[in-house]
Amino acid sequence: MLMHLTLQRDGVAREWSVQLPPANESGIASWEGASVSTALQVLQQTLDPKLGYALSCRRGLCKVCAMRIDGEVQTACTVPMRDGIRVEPAKARLALLDTVVELSLVRHSRAPIPVTSTALD
Ligand code: FES
User: Fold this and answer.
1) Residue 23, domain extent
2) Is the pLDDT of residue 117 over 70?
3) In a domain, 80, yes or no
4) Domain tally for the chain?
């Protein structure tokens, strides 16, 4: 299955043709509905080992794979890959490497968790 993906890297849009390997060689039943995260994994493994993306739960729970997909910030692990899709970092000014953004600013902006005396007893 041949897919075309445009990835914004270092401020430059780069078009990639993603050749997904046959499903039976990948241990899955079908590529139908394969996620954007899966396509990025294939790109990293077959074309560019330096391609940056983040992935953890693969269920849309942790949000670590959030990126801008066709102009909307979404979790890449839950968005099905389709031909002609456009992928960018969620916030260009926070981009560290390709789709990976600096998250420590988000963590620091959270209110501290109050500690009660009973929790320390
Ligand atoms: S990997 Fe956790 S939401 Fe995508």
Assistant:
1) 2-109
2) no
3) yes
4) 1
118 lies in a domain?
no
- The residue with greater pLDDT, 120 or 12, is 12
Please identify which residue in the block is written with the tokens 């801008």: 68
Residue 49 resides in a domain: yes
**3-21 pLDDT, tens digit each:** 788 888 877 888 877 776 6
Ligand 1 atom nearest residue 62's Cα = 2
Which DSSP helix (H) or strand (E) runs through 70?
A: none
Domain-embedded: residue 116: no
Residue type, 15: E
Cβ atoms of 73 and 66 closer than 8 Å: yes
Residue whose pair of structure tokens reads 């968005």 in the numeric block: 79
Q: Which of 38, 53, 73, 77 to mutate to test the pocket of ligand 1 (most atoms within 8 A of CB)?
A: 77
